Each structure stands twice: as structure tokens, then as C-alpha cells.
Amino acid sequence: MENNNKGIVFTHTKSSSQFNLSLRKIPRTGILQRTNNNYVYLKIDDRFILELFPLLQHDNICLPPYFSVPYNIGAHISVVYKEEYQLKVNVQNVDNILFNFDVGGLYKAIVDQKKFLILKVISPSLENFRLINNLSKKPVYHGYQVDFHITIANINQLVFNNLCLDY
Which of 22, 121, 145, 157 has its CA 20 to 30 A from that of 86? Predict the structure, then answer.
């Protein structure tokens, strides 16, 4: 178990051989994007969620809400949260830059009482992008420094047809 910060806990989770095989087939590149409210993310292949989610061996999971309104951005890696962007107005040259990354394993993450299954992401080039723009190496989410990651499932007690009922 890794305790990244108070309030955030990461626990390494075992994945099936089919999960690992499918994961190896998905390209590890993405294009930097920015939303209208200045959330900066790396748009990645949607297969990270759509192909891997059905292979997860975990009870009470549901798809993250990234494929419908209001989010509708699909699979992604958070690079600069909008709160950080507003504090550091000098983040520039954001759109359409290509970045590479690696996957460091499947983890269960607990953040402020919410639980997720994530893939940890390793990307020196994303860290460098943040440092060049006078940000910390890792994103800051609700006051907590977090690893780059891909959320592939929300863990919830109330799930119906892979949808969380209390989100």
C-alpha cells in the first residue's frame, strides 16, 4: 500500500493475464488538449477504458462518466487541473502536442472517500511539461499531489448495468 498524501491511498491490484495482454496492445501516446474551462489533459485511446473495463475482476464497479455530457472527453490523463491553471496563468502552447507515456500497473485509489481503479502512468515528458510551466512535477487535485493516471473504473456500492447510481 502506498500512501501518496493524507487523504489519498493507492493499493496495487492484481490484474488478469487477459487484462495485461489487452493492455500491451494499446498505444501509449496521446495528444494534449484543453477544455473551455482550462482543464488540460492528454487525450488517449478510448480502448484504455472500453476494452479493459470488461476484463476487470472486481465487484461493484462502473464506467467512469467520461463518455457522456458534461465530461464527454473519453479516456484521458489529467495533466493540469483547472484550479492549477487559474493559479498559473503562464501555461502556454497546450493544444495538440504529442506525448508518450508508460503504464506502471493497476491500482485501487481512494481519494476523499471515493474509490477508483486506475492505471498509474509514468511520463517524464509530462512531468517536464509541467515543470517548464512552473508547476509541480505531478498534478495537484483538491490540494493533493497525485500521480498521472488513467481512471478505468469507479468503485461503488450501488451499480446497475455498469453505471454508478449515486454519482
Answer: 121
